[in-house]
Amino acid sequence: MISRTGIQINIICLLLTFSCKGLFAAEISTCPEIPFSSESGLGGTGTSMTWRGFEEPETIFEWMGGKELAPLGQGYLKVLDIDEYRYDWPKHALIPLWGSVSGEFFGWFRDGHLVPDDQSPPVGLSGAGLVETSYQHFNLVVLKVRDGGWLLIQLNPGKEGAKWTHLCHLGLGKAKLVYQSWNQMFSETDYQLQVRTGNITSLFREPLEDSGRIASIDQASELKLILIKDDWMLVEYDASHNICEDGLSTGLEEANPGNRQRGWLKWEDHFLGPLIWFASAKCGSSQVTQTRNRG
Question: 47 lies in a domain?
Fold first, then answer.
């Protein structure tokens, strides 16, 4: 017999599945069943949990020792109602978790905690999988996306801190979540960007490596996104402006038009994810937090 709660959640899964089709090349598989006999999820744990903030490390940049080395994967879990849940969405999100794709059910993320299904003590959410996508708004990084709608999210440090969830179960809590790729996020932003690794990056005439290198840029170059084409990005920058020394400009439109150049760069890496990020006047491997108010 299926409980009323089970029917309600299956309906939510069905609606979210149809609303999120198109995010993946393959069809989204059947929404995985949740063992509703578990008291650690919708029914409560019997343990009082109060979320007061993220446990250390505070962000994925801090955990990995800097902005350059952090694996940002393929995207993040976006909070739909950011006006209501900008700061405390972990307190209102409800996410079922699995140890592997279609594998054993692990438990829940609820009230800002990982709650194992085996009744072991809840563990608070750290910032090891969090990245700031807008001013003082931190989201969970999606490390991997698998065909069928499975998402690997980093919740706490280490391999054991990464758990799988499913696209169709992201709307169970008051704070509704959706998966958004980095391509989608950057396509919707008009903020300045910069290379986040310490390596020199080449700009090409066309989105082809054999099209001819036209310039080299690094973290000191402030970039304006023009167009994204797969793993290539067309950017514009002012060759005379060094943000590590001069700070962020208020916009490239104020720069000397004669110094502005355009070129294509490879912006995605299989492991690190996006090789560019929101621009900050802090440069180098110590760059952990953002200094620009992107509210």
Answer: no
